[in-house]
Amino acid sequence: MIRTVGASKNIALVAHDNKKDDILQWALSNRHILKNHTLLATGTTGKLLEQALELPVRKLLSGPLGGDQQIGSLIAEGKVDILIFFWDPMQSQPHDPDVKALLRLGVVWNIPMACDTATANLIFSSPLINEEYTVKLTDYEDYKNRVIK
């Protein structure tokens, strides 16, 4: 199975509280690229990004209120092409299971994910950031059609 990703991508942006400054600085440095794509983000991160970038951001719920799960659902529906998630590895989150589930879905549906500035910069320096490309997806038909005894 393959999925075609257009030149204009749907980019999800998420940051834990201690990483909001990092994602804002990174986004401002990459505004020239972000402006060509559709942006969506969890609650407060979305508000901060929209103000700083002066670009529209589709704002979902705050992560602890279900925003991470909303993004995960959009990934499963093929409506997120890239996930930039600056998570805080040094602080436990009340919604840690949601965080793990979101990262898992990113891997299941083979989307590029960055959890830090270095990886986000590598993704955004790729020529594919502004080009159409195809993504190979794992065929889950056997899994979906399995019989549980």
Textual characterization of the structure:
The protein has 149 residues and is of the alpha/beta class. It has one domain (2-144): Rossmann fold, CATH 3.40.50. The protein has helices spanning 20-29, 31-34, 43-53, 67-76, 96-108, 117-125, 141-144; strands at 2-5, 10-15, 38-41, 58-59, 82-86, 113-114, 133-136. The strands form 2 sheets. The protein has a 5-stranded parallel sheet, with helices on both faces. A two-stranded antiparallel sheet has the order 1-7. α5 links the parallel β5 and β6 (113-114). It is globular. The protein starts with a strand and ends in a 5-residue tail after the last helix. The mean pLDDT is 93.
Quick summary of this structure?
This is Methylglyoxal synthase. By secondary structure, the chain is an alpha/beta fold. It is 41% helix and 18% strand.
Task: List the topology elements.
Blueprint: E1 2-5, E2 10-15, H1 20-29, H2 31-34, E3 38-41, H3 43-53, E4 58-59, H4 67-76, E5 82-86, H5 96-108, E6 113-114, H6 117-125, E7 133-136, H7 141-144
Parallel strand pairs: 2-3, 2-5, 3-4, 5-6
Antiparallel strand pairs: 1-7
Organism: Leadbetterella byssophila (strain DSM 17132 / JCM 16389 / KACC 11308 / NBRC 106382 / 4M15)
Family: Belongs to the methylglyoxal synthase family.
EC number: 4.2.3.3
